[in-house]
Amino acid sequence: MASTACFMIVSKNDIPIYEAEVGTVPKKEDAAHQHQFILHAALDIVQDTAWTTSAMFLKSIDRFNDLVVSVYVTAGHTRLMLLHDSRNDDGIKSFFQEVHELYIKTLLNPLYLPGSRVTSSHFDTKVRALARKYL
Amino acid sequence: MVDPANTKLDRMLLDQISPAVMVLRTPLVEDSCRRNDLSLIEMLAPYSTFNNIDVPVRTASDQPYRLRKFKLRLFYNSDIRQRSAEAAKERLKQVITHAGDKNISELCSRQAEIESVITTAAQELVPSWFQNFNKELIDAAAFSEHEAFDHPVACLVAVSSKDKDPIGKFVDLFNTTQLPHLLNDGSMDPKILKYYLLVHDNQEGMLEKATGILAEMRRTFGASDCRLLCINSSVNGTEEYQQNSWASHKNSASNEKQFGCFLNKDDIEELRNTMHDFSSKHIIPHMELKIRVLNQQVSATRKGFRNQIKNLWWRKGKDDVPENPSAPMYTFNSTESQIRVLGDYAFMLRDYELALSNYRLISTDYKLDKALKHYAGVQEMMGLAYFMLDQSRKDAEYCMENAFTTYAKIGSSCGRNVTRCGIWWAEMLKARDQYKDAAGVYFRISGEEPLNSAVMLEQAAYCFLMSTPAMLRKYGFHLVLSGDLYRKCDQIKHAVRTYRGALSVFKGTAWSHIRDHVHFHIGKWYAILGMFDEGIKHVLEVLACGHQAKLTQELFLREFFQIIQETGKTFEVLRLQLPVINFPSIEVVFEDHRTYASPAAANVEESLWQALEEEMTPSVAGLKSNWLELQSKILPKKYKESNVCIAGEAIKVAVSFRNPLQIPISVSNVSLICKHSTECDKSEPASNGSLDEEKNDKGLRTVAVTGETSADASLFDLSEVNISMQGGETVLVQLTVTPKVEGTLKLVGVRWKLSGSVIGICNFQSDVVRKKVAKGKIKRKKSLKDNLEFLVIKSVPRLEGTIHSLPQTVYTGDLRCLTMELRNPSKTPVKNLKMKISHPRFLDIADQEVMNLEFPTFLKKQTISSRSCTTLDASKTAKTVFLFPKDIASSWQTPVKWPLWFRAAASGSISLYITIYYETEDVSSIIKYRTLRIHYNVEVLPSLEVSYRISPSPSRLHEFLVRMDATNKTSSENFQVHQLSCVGDQWELALLQPIGSDLSLGFLMAGQSLSCFFRLKNCKTRGSTEDKMSSLAKGIADVRLVDSESSGLFDTSVSPFDLFHHHERLHQERHGQGDDGNTVDFILIAESQDDSDTGPPRTTPEILSHYACHCRIGSSSPVWWSMDGPRSVRHDFSSGFCEINLNMTVYNSLEDAVSVRINTLDSLPRSNSITNTASVSGYEHGWHDTSHLTDAKVTPDSMGGRVGKALSPESVSPFIWSGTCSTRFNLEPLSSAEVPLQISVFCQGTFDLSNYSLQWNLLSGDRGDDGNESRVRSGSCHGRPYHITVLQKNKAEI
User: Fold this and answer.
1) Is B1094 a residue whose pLDDT tops 50?
2) CA A88/CA B462 separation, integer angstroms
3) Which pLDDT does position B709 carry in this prediction?
4) B377 touches A at CB < 8 Å
5) Of the candidates B1062, B1220, B1076, the residue with the CA atom closest to the CA atom of residue B1152
6) Looking at B636-704, which runs of residues are DSSP E strands?
């Protein structure tokens, strides 16, 4: 498992709708904004890269020092972004696919407004479990 | 594709890679130049750059071309060495600090929108000092021994004409001890082109002397290499120029002094000519010559196949030679150096192809020699040459990258070279519009040195901005990174500048951490710079950071207060985010003609009250024709639209504050901001309304300040509240303002003090009003602008009313006597009091004399004779508005008490609304009447569930069996059932069995249930003559269910029992199908039993009354009958069939005569059973069966079952009716008749004689239609089971 990993779902309007620190290293206070900065800046790259490929998993598209950003773009242009320091492409891919499935389930909830924050605790526990499993 | 010759990189290269000239001068030369505030180099610098020198040059292969741009770099001999690290750092710092100071004014300017940032030209946006900074960085890497382009090409020796022995000086100046180490340590050729310049100051001496010296010089050094330069020809030193060419070159000095003030036009012309001559006639030809010589040498030694093989062989052998770190690796006369010099000279003369070929040649050599620094340097030059040739783009990039990584690999010693290479590389990419890549390069340059990194990151940020499409997020991120580094180097101005740029991207972002970080830091830094207003503005943005961790919240808050403290004053902040005001939940409650007894009453929906008051208040139509007319005369239109409140009566505003943080905060001095204007200055509020937003805010501030002074205190009173809020808490604060003087009062906003240091102000008008539409309690019809404006009128009396000891929780049926108290605090009397209660079933008005009686004892029957048959006063109950007697209204000195009856009629949560109307005596007042609205909530718990079943007595005609089932539904309460009464004159009620002494019949524990049987007798059957007598004899309509004789029975025919009975009857009416005399109303009275264990003993026993109205007696038909006859008969069937005589008594319970026909049926058709059951189900209507322990004989469903059973398929009926099959007769009202019947039985057995039917119809022909259409006029009933057993008579028995 990665020592640092920050997972985030960004809606198509570039608004973060879910975020979780899934690394083993306990979260540092000052890291929170740094992670957001890196992921936010990586959106610029995603914007370019997403249309060059038909694949949903864009692999590592951006890096900052030793942190790498991997992105998975869904059909609705919701972006699943992972900031990590380990190199485990297969694991990350599986992680993204399973989270995507979870996210679709959330979308199917008639009470969930697409593009709003995902607050389901069930979703959260599932994502963390997946992170433990794959990352 | 951009022509590389016009790019920025080209200009940079012209600046950096151009022939260097070493300048040697005597102090006197320097002195002469100092008159102009310039050094010699500075004076010459503007004229050593040529934009169009137009010198013909030949390449090594004799290809002629013309050189256009050319530049000489002049250095003093002492400057030709690498700068020390400290010096370089210091210079960079200077540049940055200087730049920062220049920009300070912009820091407070308005924030640019990001859209405009994108559209503005990049040149405007990118700070211009970047160029200077980059130049300094590149200069810091100059004069390295591994590069030849910094090696001086020529030496300019300047001697003043005043010097003694000028010729000697010229020789002395070129003394080896003074020369830079590059020449001394052998990395460059000490044989260098020399040019001798005699500087003559016209102010100091005569020209003749100078010309003399020049002639001598020419003789000594050769004619062409000497020149005389006359300066300072201007006499008074006031020469001014349109464009001062020195100013742009000398960036660091101030502009206050005019440069070159002693130089006149001739001098300048001479300067120009001197430098032109020097470069075109000496330097360029010298370089050209050198290129040729070197090229020949290189061709001889290195070109061709043989030389290459030789070279390789030789290189291999050289591998094991240890490198001497102190001495330069390659001396000037080594082949490698020569090739390098050749390349650099070619490059400087813009013969890039020659340069490139030589660089390539030497590059492999250096690589094989592992001379990494040299290798990197050559790669760098190759990259630049590729770029200038505009050839392979890929190669250029490859070379630059290679150079960059190689430099980086060498380590810290080459840090400057890394930076220089990176800057060139980035410029190259920028020239090709590869901004994104350029940004990457800048990012790579940023290393450990924070200041450099900061600038590089900032440049990277601008690259992202300029790339297409603009990468704004990257731009913002890199600006933030750079700002952090600036902060680390204490360059706060720059830090603020970068963050401001970043803010234009991150403004309003949903990425909360980013937003908080940027706002917080920029705010903090502004405060460091002393710009507190800006600082506070930004820190305010992050105060409501509920999403942050607790520590961060504390940090933010602490920093905020620190800034506030530094300002040294209590700061007023508009729209302070802490605590947050929940706008939709703001409620304004005021009283005009409507007054409320409690806040709860004010929360009740207005329509509910209006419906209740409809009958009492003056009618709408009258109001419109009279009132409005009158009002419009009295009042200007403006006031009609505003709300009315009364002087001395408080306007309550409930504001809900929410603490978004996890840490507790203390809020003090919460109060409203109000504006009061007396009626005389009418123009004031009007003008205020037209103020625009910003001005309004300012006005608000002043109001807030003056609010503390005593000036306003006389006009209105404000309440102040202090609260302390825990993390995440929401507190509803009740604020009041009490106007004291008539006029107009306007609620402007709310203010509070956070932690005793910051005053927060929230303006209702600007933010609230739109949101208030949904929930505001203020009249909807009015325009919202006026919502918070009140017309204050002079005081009118206001009644206060309460109901004493109204319980919160009661059990169903609880009956109480309550007291309502009305007070009038003012001296002015009121009149015309009226009252209306929303639920008369629960609460009703009692007679005033009840006050003096003891409840509930007075309800008990005193004697039987005292009972009077009072019928309910129909007018009293029908009219729901109660008018208080006039005499009460006029004398309001003491509070008036009035009794009320309360009965918990049904379980559930009951809201009781009471409204009291009164009029003021004062005619002149705008408000003619007022209403007092009282509201109570009562929780009613279920207590006893009672159900009744009445069935006709099988044996007696006018009697019914009543079964009462009572269940105690409570969990803890015990009840004593006291009595059961039935309402009405015609009923007599008695217990079926008398209560035994051992039996406590009516006691019901929690959860217990009870069944009782009663006999109900209809007295109306008697003839009309007997009626009066029997009514007197009656008194048995009540049955005591307790055995103790001491407690008397309650009289159910007096108030409040009859009152509530009336309401219950109305309420329960819908269940019954009409009242045709066949229904009974029961009242069950129980007392709650004191449970000594729980609670204090009650002072009075609680009375519970349960009403059950419209209980149907057991027959749906108005015609009752009963069959009389033997139940069992013994008969000897051998002597024939048995005849049995029966007697049927038929009674007409109606007030009209009916005709009755009895049909006897000998066989029961099958379909009959269906109709039979159908009628059974109709018969069952309104009943509910509480248990199956009922008498089988009288249950209707068991009857149906029996009928079905009797239908055996084989049977011929074992008995037949004898006599006529149909008998018809008429019955007078309330009379009975007897009909004889006979059956013949053929065999023994038990028979059910239910196979007859009875049909009746009203004989109403003579009476005509009495208008009661709904009344049932005819009907038919099936026979009731009557079992008869016939047995064989045993002869032996006879």
Assistant:
1) no
2) 33
3) 40
4) no
5) B1076
6) 643-646, 651-658, 665-677
Q: Which two tokens stand for residue B601?
A: 């009453």
Q: Is the distance from CB of B1056 to CB of B846 less than 8 angstroms?
A: yes
Q: Do the chains contact at A40 and B477, CB–CB below 8 Å?
A: yes
Residue the block writes with tokens 């540049």: B95
Domains of chain B: 17-57+66-104+152-289 (3.40.50), 580-590+649-793 (2.60.40), 800-846+881-940 (2.60.40.10), 944-1112 (2.60.40), 1119-1292 (2.60.40.10)
CATH number at residue A125: 3.30.450.70
CA separation, residue B82 to residues B86, B180, B329, B341, B464 (Å): 11, 10, 18, 19, 33
pLDDT confidence tier of residue A103, bands split at 50, 70 and 90: very high
Amino acid at B391: Q
Query: Which of these ranges, A24-38, A42-56, B319-333, has the smallest mean pLDDT?
Result: B319-333
Q: Which residues contact B362 (CB under 8 A, 6 or more apart)?
A: B336, B339, B340, B343, B378
* Integer Cα distance of B652 and B733 in angstroms: 10
Taking the Cβ of residue B223 and every Cβ of chain A, the question of whether any pair is shorter than 8 Å is answered with no
According to DSSP, the residues that pair with B731 across neighbouring strands are B657
Picking from A16, A33, A41, the nearest residue to B473 by CB comes out as: A41
Inter-helix orientation angle B512-528/B532-543, to 10°: 160
Pair A57, A96: CB distance under 8 Å: yes
The three-state secondary structure class of B495 is helix
Residues of B in contact with A15 (CB under 8 A): 510-511
Question: How much of chain B, in percent, has pLDDT values that exceed 90?
Answer: 0
* Contact yes or no for B552 and A14 at CB 8 A: no
Comparing A78-92, B222-236, B302-316, B416-430, the range with the smallest average pLDDT is B302-316
Distance CA B1117, CA B1277 (A): 7
Whole-angstrom distance, CA of residue B41 vs CA of residue B1294: 168
Query: Does residue A115 sit at the B interface (CB-CB below 8 Å)?
Result: no
In three-state form (DSSP H/G/I as H, E/B as E, the rest C), the secondary structure along B934-954 is: EEEEEEEECCEEEEEEEEECC
State the total domains in chain A: 1
Cα separation values, B452 from B409, B461, B826, B956, Å: 19, 14, 81, 118
Question: Cβ contacts (< 8 Å) between B477 and chain A: which residues?
Answer: 37-38, 40-41
Q: Which residues contact B366 (CB under 8 A, 6 or more apart)?
A: B336, B372, B374, B375, B378
Q: Taking every pair of C-alpha atoms in chain A, what is the biggest distance, in angstroms?
A: 42
Q: Indicate the pLDDT class of residue B981, thresholds 50, 70 and 90.
A: confident
Residue-range definition of the domain harbouring residue A87: 5-134
Q: Where are the beta strands (DSSP E) in B592-662?
A: 594-596, 643-646, 651-658
Average pLDDT on B1035-1045 reads 64
Asked if the Cβ–Cβ distance from B474 to A41 is below 8 Å, we say yes
Nearest CB among A16, A44, A45 relative to B511 is that of: A16
Residue type, B1183: W
Among the residue ranges B613-622, B1042-1051, B1094-1103, the one predicted with the least confidence is B1094-1103
pLDDT given for residue B82 in this prediction = 73
- Residue B158 — pLDDT band, cuts 50, 70, 90? confident
Report the pLDDT value the prediction gives residue B994, as an integer from 0 to 100. Answer: 65
CA angle at B714 for the pair B709 and B719, rounded to the nearest 5°: 75
- Cα(B830)–Cα(B892) distance, rounded to whole angstroms? 8
Task: Name the closest residue on chain A to residue B467, using Cα atoms.
Answer: A44
Least confident range of B207-211, B523-527, B600-604, B1091-1095: B1091-1095
> Residue B862's Cα: distance from chain center in Å?
68
